[in-house]
Write a structure and sequence with these properties.
It contains 5 helices and no strands. With 153 residues, it is an all-alpha fold. It is elongated, with a radius of gyration of 24 Å.
């Protein structure tokens, strides 16, 4: 039976980032100790000393894979825009967040209102970005069809 990941991918990435940051901070703190300053740094060699894994230089623009993923990408954009443009009962909608801002204001929770207003600004900007991407994707679909790349899965 395969191992079950207990954290959602976002939390897993956050946990790994926290561990990495802790290691960096611990190393920086230890570097300030007299024992660490007295010890000479050993020259590093081998694979660990090499730069991070570098990806090869792309030889194309990825048109084939973009055309292949086109239907699912369009679906994701449509779903996201439907959610954002939903009414106040739709989780993740601009209207719902506006209602929460109004509720915080009427309750006198100015700090919460300020925080939610920042999120509201970002969410409204996201709507514009996604609409722009949706328009761009229509042009890509036309290009894919004209060049015989197909838009199948």
């Amino acid at each position: 039976m395969p191992a079950v990941n207990r954290l959602p991918s976002g939390r897993r990435a956050g946990a790994l980032g926290t561990l990495a940051l802790t290691g960096v901070l611990t190393g920086a703190l230890l570097a300030g100790t007299p024992a660490a300053q007295a010890a000479p740094a050993a020259p590093s060699s081998g694979p660990a000393a090499a730069s991070p894994t570098a990806l090869p230089t792309p030889t194309g623009d990825g048109a084939k894979s973009i055309c292949k993923r086109l239907p699912s990408t369009e679906g994701h954009l449509t779903n996201a825009l439907n959610r954002l443009n939903g009414d106040a009962t739709m989780a993740g909608s601009v209207a719902r967040l506006q209602q929460r801002v109004a509720n915080a204001k009427s309750a006198g929770h100015t700090e919460v209102e300020t925080y939610l207003n920042g999120r509201l600004t970002a969410r409204k900007a996201l709507v514009g970005t996604l609409k722009s991407r949706q328009d761009d994707l229509k042009s890509v679909a036309t290009w894919c069809a004209a060049h015989g790349k197909g838009a199948g899965k």
